[in-house]
Amino acid sequence: MIKNETRAVGYVRVSTDEQAREGISIEAQEDRIRAMAIAKGWSLLEIIKDAGYSGKSLNRPGAKGLIEACRRGAVDVVVVYKVDRLTRKQKDLWHLLEEVFDANRVGFVSVTEAFDTTTASGKAFLGMIGVFAQLERDLVSERTKEALHQKKTKHEWVGRLPVGFVIGISGRLEEDSEAMDLITKAKRLRRTGASFGDISRALKMPKATVHRLINANMRTRKHNYLNTLAS
Asked: Which of 67-71, 95-99, 114-118, 190-194 has the lowest mean pLDDT?
């Protein structure tokens, strides 16, 4: 299946958190894939990118494009820096292997993991990699849930920080006096007839945020947020 002068397509992915934690940048992955293609004598047609996407599912623009290219018969081998760049879920990995790659006579190669999907032992080894990738994802999810549970137990704020509030030393929401002043100014400008666009430019706030805050009842907003944390 995989031979010299074959058509290769690279695939790279990184989420913001992973890049900060592991340093596996898009550029670093691309460099390693190009080096492998040169060493193997493959014709690297393109490197498909999914920047800022999680590996939890295949619902990514780049991944979808890669699958479509395989089904069109436009690819002979797919090259990744590491298997978990393409997917972290074992179920999705086997779907790709059996229904996309094997079904369309496409090879699958990792720069950092030695396997050959054209052999039974190679597929078994790849399956083991998929198991550990799934385990890692489950462990991360478990730790995240535990951390959120601990925060809720301590009545600390969990979730996106609402405009007009900051997280205090106690871990609870507190009013942001500067932000509250901006909200007050926005409401005052609106009462004088200023448009949402004018207010957005004057206060350097997104128009959607201006619209939402001007129409919000701040007394109720404060009561709901601050009392939720005290409960």
From this structure: 114-118
Residue 37 domain boundaries: 7-140
55 and 13 in one domain?
Answer: yes
- With contact defined as beta carbons under 8 Å apart, do 194 and 201 qualify? no
Looking at residue 231, what is its pLDDT? 42
For residues 88 and 175, state if they share a domain: no
Residues 110 and 224 reside in one and the same domain: no
**Candidate list 15, 54, 195, 200, residue with the active-site label:** 15
pLDDT surpasses 50 at 20: no
- Residue 98's identity, in one-letter code, is E
Q: Which residue has the higher pLDDT, 7 or 143?
A: 7
d(CA 104, CA 12): 21
Domains in the chain, number: 2
Q: What is the pTM of this model?
A: 0.53
Tell me the CATH number at 195. 1.10.10
Instruction: Identify the domain boundary among 83, 105, 140.
Output: 140
Cα–Cα dist 220/225, whole Å? 9
Catalytic (active site) residue 110: no
Q: Is 96 in the same domain as 187?
A: no
Q: Does pLDDT of 34 surpass 70?
A: yes
**Structural domain includes residue 216:** yes
Long-range contacts: 13-17, Cβ < 8 Å, 24+?
Answer: 13/49, 13/50, 13/51, 13/53, 13/55, 13/60, 13/62, 13/63, 13/85, 13/86, 14/51, 14/52, 14/85, 15/52, 15/53, 15/54, 15/55, 16/52
